[in-house]
Amino acid sequence: MLARNMPSNPHTNASLDSVLAELKAAAAVPFAEARPLPAALNHSTAFLEHERQAVFEREWICVGREDEIPAHGDYLTHEIAGVPVLVVRQQDQEIIAFVNACAHRFACLEPAERGSRKRFTCRYHAWTYDCAGALLRAPYMEMKDGFDPAEHRLRRLHCCSWEGFVYVSIAHDPQKFLPEVLAPLREQVVGRYDMACYRSVMRERMEWNANWKNLMENFIESYHVPIAHGKTFAQHNKPLQDYVCGEDSEHYCYHRAPQAATSGSGAAHPNNHRLDGEWRRMMVDFCVFPNHLVTLMPDYLWYISVQPLGTDRMQATWGLAVPPEVLDDVDAAGYDRWLDEFRRYMDIANDEDKVLVEALHRGSASALLPAGTYHPIERNLWQFNNYLARVCARERPRAGD
Q1: Residue boundaries of the structural domains of the chain
Q2: What is the DSSP letter of 54?
Q3: Inter-axis angle of helices 379-392 and 212-219, nearest 10
Q4: Where are the alpha helices (DSSP H) in 32-119?
Q5: What Å distances lie between residue 111 and 15, 74, 75, 107, 174, CA to CA?
Q6: Amino acid 9: pLDDT
Q7: What does pTM read for this prediction?
Q8: How much is the pLDDT for 396?
Q9: Three-state DSSP class for 153?
Q10: Contact call for residues 104 and 124 (beta carbons, < 8 A)
Q11: Distance between CA 394 and CA 334 in Å, rounded?
């Protein structure tokens, strides 16, 4: 009989050095010999803290889409590695990101997930800022000798856009320029869709009882689709032998497959003049490392931005966008019904995935596991593992880097 104080999960207390050694060993073998991500990576509390520093504090994180904040003062909020983020559209159409904390005593400045304001006023002491982060009003601070409002702006963060998506980095000096490193993905694959023209129609958040990497692994392979998504994605009838996994990259991975049908769901609208040939019925699943997932179709895209809440809990912000020619076909009177039907479809797909993702986490908590293996179309999993090994093996970041 197990002692009452014995941890039920043997991986929880795994040391960082032992987990990094397992990860390095897993990434050192070619794909033909590769095995699944070591279980300790999803359960070790030491590794959770390390990946927060090595991954989320240093990489570019997707916070939403440009068209979600089209006008001056429109904003989104997000969180990256415990840092609250505020992203605001400027009068000149630039998008700027800040730490979502008042420059006085750091109260969260904007609690809503999205909205529109020309002024951001702290609920605590009414310090008020403009959309560019400048302090406009600080009640009674004239009582403090030498107080200069110009010295008390919101703290700026690095922000960039790519193909209609908005990314933020909380690093002091990001090590890469995202549009530059993603140029091959855009030029060779996704650029032909013109994702920036897709119009956002939905934005949701969800929390599951799993590690964030469990969702990542589930999304970037389609081996499970014919079995697990009978009510949704499997209906596109894409044979597994038609899937093509993309080139190895340090910054992204993808796979693609055409469906048989040239019209209807999953196919390009007749007024879509951007896509030609089989691309008019092509699905592309891609991941911008570390945590931005996209299913890109000729008639819609579904994106997810994942972040850890613990070793056994994750949060995902997800959204849906459709090309303008598709949206133009939706009658104004029937828009709500059309959107409700789309939401039900996505809810079913998420429910189909949730049981699998949570099962991955529960199963990998075991002390005894088979060796595991990969199917040929699961190469993206090996690519993701190699990405983790590379960034987590970097020199351990110091506070403030």
Answers
A1: 61-161, 194-391
A2: I
A3: 140
A4: 45-51
A5: 37, 14, 11, 10, 27
A6: 85
A7: 0.94
A8: 53
A9: coil
A10: yes
A11: 52
The residue whose two tokens read 């090996």 is 382
DSSP sequence for 229-296: -TTTGGGG---GGG-EE----SSEEEEEEE-S-SSSTTS--TT--S--GGGGGEEEEEEETTTEEEEE
8 Å CB contact between 121 and 128? yes
**Taking the CB of residue 129, how many other CB atoms lie within 10 A of it?**
27
Quick one: tokens of 311?
């070793």
For each successive 10 residues of the chain (401 residues), what is the average pLDDT? 56 94 94 94 96 97 98 98 97 98 98 97 98 98 96 98 98 94 98 98 97 97 92 88 96 96 95 97 98 98 97 97 97 95 95 96 93 95 97 64 47
Instruction: For residues 289 and 292, give the distance between their C-alpha atoms in angstroms, rounded to a whole number.
Output: 6
Question: What span, in angstroms and rounded, lies between the C-alpha atoms of 96 and 168?
Answer: 9
Bridge-based pairing of strands 83-89 and 95-99 is antiparallel
Q: CATH: 2.102.10.10, 2.40.50.100, 3.40.50.720, 3.10.105.10. Which one for 61-161?
A: 2.102.10.10
In CATH terms, 194-391 corresponds, of 3.40.640.10, 3.30.230.10, 3.90.380.10, 3.40.50.300, to 3.90.380.10
Do 194-391 and 61-161 fall under one CATH topology? Answer: no
Q: What is the DSSP string of 182-212?
A: THHHHHHTGGGG-GGGSEEEEEEEEEESS-H
Q: What pLDDT score was predicted for residue 7? A: 53
**Tokens, residue 192:** 């032909």
Amino acid at 279: W
